[in-house]
Every structure is written in structure tokens, then in C-alpha cells.
């Protein structure tokens, strides 16, 4: 008897040791499958914002092997879930006709999407440690907001069903569909037969920005969840995001966005080491987390701070969304709103993060399948110009240098958004650059040679220190000239001498002195056609054409403060 007990204890001990070893080995297992870095350029014709579908996919093998969650509550049958919707008839109502190009209408392979049906199992792509995290039992519910314009029925229905099947039912208050004036109203209407699904149709094409605001305004839950209309949410996607927002309502959180192939609809795990970034043309890109942050991450389930979000899939507290001014509803159709929202969230007291334990698949496309009434290039410029003009302060110059075609293009009035920024007491873009996105390099400035013209007169130096206005003279190539200025922000330069104020008070004279980029008295920036001294906030003023130039209160309309730079080539 005693021997049998001893044997049993020995067997259990060995099993326990083996189990522990297996666990540790799993934890340290190297990523075995090669990363298929099929980095693909996603040209959209106009070269604007493209969510390059993180096509540098690193398959993360620390995911949960073989676990396929189809349904959160397996007892809910697909039939119950759909209420009165006749799914077969809905899908059959719109199908590819033989001989039609399957990519034509949606810029993805419609034939493959239709073939898949409305639900399918997908791999749980999270790090395996995510499965053992716990979330509050009393998480608040959310309103899911999905806006669409001519979405394919099969992708739209799969998006909705994946939400209903892979979310705890108590967390889904409602799914609000905003049909952005699609050709067939039934695409949306028929879906409102599904329990919890509501359908709002725009009376004209509004674009995704105004459509989302409409959805948010009718949402009844305290938390908003935005989704594109061609997604599939993965196991336990929602709880991590709601948990983070519940803990701190100023957080705006998004999942890791997995890739659903636009060709064969394979569900592919995206790398867990990416965050959202951009270049100065306001072109969104996925980028590696900075190395120091990567080294400091000991726990792969921890949130990743991100300078910007891709834009389509995020969770945000409703009152915080409203407090921060929702969206800029003068932005049209598509694009730029993700920068505007991201800058605003960071600069006005919130934060943005990507949660690795939340995964949502999305069909990334190479072109827009829909039209832009004003043309897609002009629309993108209008939207990003609005974001740059309202939020980027003096850094907007880099946007204009990177996107010269934006200069002079119409972008409407931004007065309301500037008032909002002031009311919310938001930090300057410089703060964002220093604290949120220090990795974004400010371009090296090339000196621009120019004269500074006021009426028919030009600003010139006299001797080594003094300045004045005089008749503009012809300037020969490359020879020093008292009327030639090099503009290298923040300096206004002539050889080794720079324009400086003599004191910080209104009425103080300006003079030339040896250049020093760190000297606060030498820092200038353009303000309309005026030249503003950055520290005192006063503007360069000629007073009278004969008197020496001084600095005075900026008054944009004043002729004596207007300095038209005329570039010398
Ligand atoms: C990305 C975002 C998208 C949005 C966009 C920039 C992701 C996964 N997607 O582009 O949500 O932030 O960048 O603006 O981060 N739609 C309308 N009306 C329109 C045009 C589009 O309702 O006039 C819908 C469209 O059906 C889709 C959503 O808006 O559900 C986003 O459009 P998209 O899928 O063409 O944009 P995407 O994913 O390239
Ligand atoms: Mn999309």
C-alpha cells in the first residue's frame, strides 16, 4: 500500500517537473517561423495616407497553439444571433456575376469573401500569456459604431457576426451601422433585423468622419467602439480595451490590427512590435517600437504607447470623445482625421495606446474602391491641412515643404477648432514632439536666400550693426549683399551676423550681431507676412521708412509689419 502511494507521489512529482519545464520552454521559445517581410507599397494613386497593412508580418509563434474560438458563448446558435435576418437571402441578394472582375467594386477579392460565408474560425493570434489575464466582472458596455459606403454584404455581415460571437454579450449595448449613402439602402436596412443592430442612413454622402460623429451622437453606452466595415474581431478582443478605458477615461486604445488578405482572405497575425507613426507629409506608417522601449518591455501583454492611431479601430470613453470635440466635422470623406484626433488626444491631456492582447483583423486595400466627390488628392490635402493648421504650430512648415501641393489649396475655416484648442488649454505641438514623438526628425533646413520686401523697399544692413529700409537693388549671384537674407529658422542671417532684438520690450531696436542659434534674442518665425520674434511675441516693424526698424505689438494688417520674402535664385 505504502509502495503504491510512494509510486503515485513519484509519478506526480515527475509530471509536475516536466510540466514546469514545458511551460518555461514555451515562454522562451524562439520565434521559429521566418518573418515574411513582403513589404508592399500600397499606392493609392494619389500617394496619400495609406495604412500599409503592416505587411511586414512577423508571425509571432508565442500565440495560443491550435485554439480556435468561434463563439464566446457557444450556447448562442448562429440562428438566434441573427434574429429575423434571412442570412442566405441577404447574401444571395448581391453576388458576383459570372465573368465580373472580383476586385472591381471593393478592391478586394469579393469571390473569396463570399465563398467564406458569414462566419469562420480564425487563429487566436495573441501572445499565449494574454489568455491568463483577468478583467473586471463589471466592465461597462459599449456601443459599436460601424460606418460604411458600399461595403460588400459578406464582409459587413462577417464583421457584425464576429462581434456578436466573440464578445461577452453583456458588453455589447448595440451595434450602430451608419450607411453613408450606399447605392442600395437594403444593405443596411435588412441587417437591423439582427438583435442589437441599428441602422442609420445618411441622406447624402458625408464621409466617414461626419458619419462616425452621427453614430456617436446616438450611442447609448458610455463607451464608444469604432470599427471599419470589413473586420473580424478575435478572441477576447473587447475586454482589454474596455478595461483600460474604465481605469482611465482619458486613454484612447486600439487593438493590434491583424491582416486579412485582400486576395484570399487568409487571417494573418501582425507583428506585436509596431506602433503608429507618420512622416511630415502626414502619411501614416507602421513603425518599430523604439529600441529602448522594446528592451524595457518585459511583459508582452503591456500596452504600447503610440504617437498616432491608424484611425479605424479604437475604443474611447464617450464623454471624453465629446469633451475633446469629437472630430473635425469639416473634414470630408476619408483621411487625416486620425492625425487630428491623435494630436488632440495627446496635446489635450489624454493618451493613445495599442493593446497587444486585443486583436482585430482588417482587410487592408491598395486603392479606394469608392469615389471622392472633390477628388481624393484634394480631399486628403484639405483634411490634413486642417489638422496641420490647427495643431502643428510652427512645425506645419515641414508639412508644407513635404507636401508643396498643399500650399494655397482651400481648407475652409478653422476658427471653431482653434477656439476649441484654446478652450481645452492644449499643449503646444513642440511638447508633443519632445514627449510623445521625439523620434520624428525635424528636416535639415536648407538656407533660402531672399530679400525682405516692404512695398518697393527692402530691408538692408548698414555697417556692422544698424538696419534700415532702402530702394531694392539688383543682387548678383553669390556675392555678399546688404539686402540678401538667409532664412534658416529661427535665424535671419547675413554671413556670420544675425538679426537680433536689443531688448524684449515693445519699441526696442533691432540690430545685427554674431549668430548663435541658442540666443533667444535671435529667434524669429514667420507669422503670415509678418516676422515675429519668438520669445517676446513682438513683430518686426519698420515704423517709418526712414526710422530704424524696431519690434512692436503684432498687428497682421499693418503695412509696416509686412515683409514679403522674395526668394533669390
Ligand atoms: C484607415 C482606417 C480608417 C480611417 C482611414 C483614414 C483602419 C483599419 N482604417 O483607412 O478607419 O481612419 O484610415 O481616414 O485603421 N467610409 C464611409 N464613407 C466614405 C468613405 C469610407 O463610411 O465616404 C467607411 C468605409 O466603408 C470603411 C471606413 O469608412 O468602413 C474606412 O474606410 P476605408 O476602409 O476605405 O479606410 P482604410 O481602412 O483604408
Ligand atoms: Mn478599412
TrEMBL record:
It is found in: Golgi apparatus membrane. GO terms for cellular component: Golgi membrane. Keywords: Disulfide bond, Glycosyltransferase, Golgi apparatus, Lectin, Manganese, Membrane, Metal-binding, Signal-anchor, Transferase, Transmembrane, Transmembrane helix. Pathway: Protein modification; protein glycosylation. It catalyses: L-seryl-[protein] + UDP-N-acetyl-alpha-D-galactosamine = a 3-O-[N-acetyl-alpha-D-galactosaminyl]-L-seryl-[protein] + UDP + H(+); L-threonyl-[protein] + UDP-N-acetyl-alpha-D-galactosamine = a 3-O-[N-acetyl-alpha-D-galactosaminyl]-L-threonyl-[protein] + UDP + H(+). Coiled coil: none annotated. It is a single-pass type II membrane protein. The chain crosses the membrane at residues 7-25. Its EC number is 2.4.1.-. Signal peptide: none annotated. Residues 445-566 form the Ricin B lectin domain. GO terms for molecular function: carbohydrate binding; metal ion binding; polypeptide N-acetylgalactosaminyltransferase activity. Belongs to the glycosyltransferase 2 family. GalNAc-T subfamily. PANTHER family: N-ACETYLGALACTOSAMINYLTRANSFERASE, POLYPEPTIDE N-ACETYLGALACTOSAMINYLTRANSFERASE 16. This is Polypeptide N-acetylgalactosaminyltransferase. It comes from Dicentrarchus labrax (European seabass). The gene is galnt16.
Amino acid at each position: 500500500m505504502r509502495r503504491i502511494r510512494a509510486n503515485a507521489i513519484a509519478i506526480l512529482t515527475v509530471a509536475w517537473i516536466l510540466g514546469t519545464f514545458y511551460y518555461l520552454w514555451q515562454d522562451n521559445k524562439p520565434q521559429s517561423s521566418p518573418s515574411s517581410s513582403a513589404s508592399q507599397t500600397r499606392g493609392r494613386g494619389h500617394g496619400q495616407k495609406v495604412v500599409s497593412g503592416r505587411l511586414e508580418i512577423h508571425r509571432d509563434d508565442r500565440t495560443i497553439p491550435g485554439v480556435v474560438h468561434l463563439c464566446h458563448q457557444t450556447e448562442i446558435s448562429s440562428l438566434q444571433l441573427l434574429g429575423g435576418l434571412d442570412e442566405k437571402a441577404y447574401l444571395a441578394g448581391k453576388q458576383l456575376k459570372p465573368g465580373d472582375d472580383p476586385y472591381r467594386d471593393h478592391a478586394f477579392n469579393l469571390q473569396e469573401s463570399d465563398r467564406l460565408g458569414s462566419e469562420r474560425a480564425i487563429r487566436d493570434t495573441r501572445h499565449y500569456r494574454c489568455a491568463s489575464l483577468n478583467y473586471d466582472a463589471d466592465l461597462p458596455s459599449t456601443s459599436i459604431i460601424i460606418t460604411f459606403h458600399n461595403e460588400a454584404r459578406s464582409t459587413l455581415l462577417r464583421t457584425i457576426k464576429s462581434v456578436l460571437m466573440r464578445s461577452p454579450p453583456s458588453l455589447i449595448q448595440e451595434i450602430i451601422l451608419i450607411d453613408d449613402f450606399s447605392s442600395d439602402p437594403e444593405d443596411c436596412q435588412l441587417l437591423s433585423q439582427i438583435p442589437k443592430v441599428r441602422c442609420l442612413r445618411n441622406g447624402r454622402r458625408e464621409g466617414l468622419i461626419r458619419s462616425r460623429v452621427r453614430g456617436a451622437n446616438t450611442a447609448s453606452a458610455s463607451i464608444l467602439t469604432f470599427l471599419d466595415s470589413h473586420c473580424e474581431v478575435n478572441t477576447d478582443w473587447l475586454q482589454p480595451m474596455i478595461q483600460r478605458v474604465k481605469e482611465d477615461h482619458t486613454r484612447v486604445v486600439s487593438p493590434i490590427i491583424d491582416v486579412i488578405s485582400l486576395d484570399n482572405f487568409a487571417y494573418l497575425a501582425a507583428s506585436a512590435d509596431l506602433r503608429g507613426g507618420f512622416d511630415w507629409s502626414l502619411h501614416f506608417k507602421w513603425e518599430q517600437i523604439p529600441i529602448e522601449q522594446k528592451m524595457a518591455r518585459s511583459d508582452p501583454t503591456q500596452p504600447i504607447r503610440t504617437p498616432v492611431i491608424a484611425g479605424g479601430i479604437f475604443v474611447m470613453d464617450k464623454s471624453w470623445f465629446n469633451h475633446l470635440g469629437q472630430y473635425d466635422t469639416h473634414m470630408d470623406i476619408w483621411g487625416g482625421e486620425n492625425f487630428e484626433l491623435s494630436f488632440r488626444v495627446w496635446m489635450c491631456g489624454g493618451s493613445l495606446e495599442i493593446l497587444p492582447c486585443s486583436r482585430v483583423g482588417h482587410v487592408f486595400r491598395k486603392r479606394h474602391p469608392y469615389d471622392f466627390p472633390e477628388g481624393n488628392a484634394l480631399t486628403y490635402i484639405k483634411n490634413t491641412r486642417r489638422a496641420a493648421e490647427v495643431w502643428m504650430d510652427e512645425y506645419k512648415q515641414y508639412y508644407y515643404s513635404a507636401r508643396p501641393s498643399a500650399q494655397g489649396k482651400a481648407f475652409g475655416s478653422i476658427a471653431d477648432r482653434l477656439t476649441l484648442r484654446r478652450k481645452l488649454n492644449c499643449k503646444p505641438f513642440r511638447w508633443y514632439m519632445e514627449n510623445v514623438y521625439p523620434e520624428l526628425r525635424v528636416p535639415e533646413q536648407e538656407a533660402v536666400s531672399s530679400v525682405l520686401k516692404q512695398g518697393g523697399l527692402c530691408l538692408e544692413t548698414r555697417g556692422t550693426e544698424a538696419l534700415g529700409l532702402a530702394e531694392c537693388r539688383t543682387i548678383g549671384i553669390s556675392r555678399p549683399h546688404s539686402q540678401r537674407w538667409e532664412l534658416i529658422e529661427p535665424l535671419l542671417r547675413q554671413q556670420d551676423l544675425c538679426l537680433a532684438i536689443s531688448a524684449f520690450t515693445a519699441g526696442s531696436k533691432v540690430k545685427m550681431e554674431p549668430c548663435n542659434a541658442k540666443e533667444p534674442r535671435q529667434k524669429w518665425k514667420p507669422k503670415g507676412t509678418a516676422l515675429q520674434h519668438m520669445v517676446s511675441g513682438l513683430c518686426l516693424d519698420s515704423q517709418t521708412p526712414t526710422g530704424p526698424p524696431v519690434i512692436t505689438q503684432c498687428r497682421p494688417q499693418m503695412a509696416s509689419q509686412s515683409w514679403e520674402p522674395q526668394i533669390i535664385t
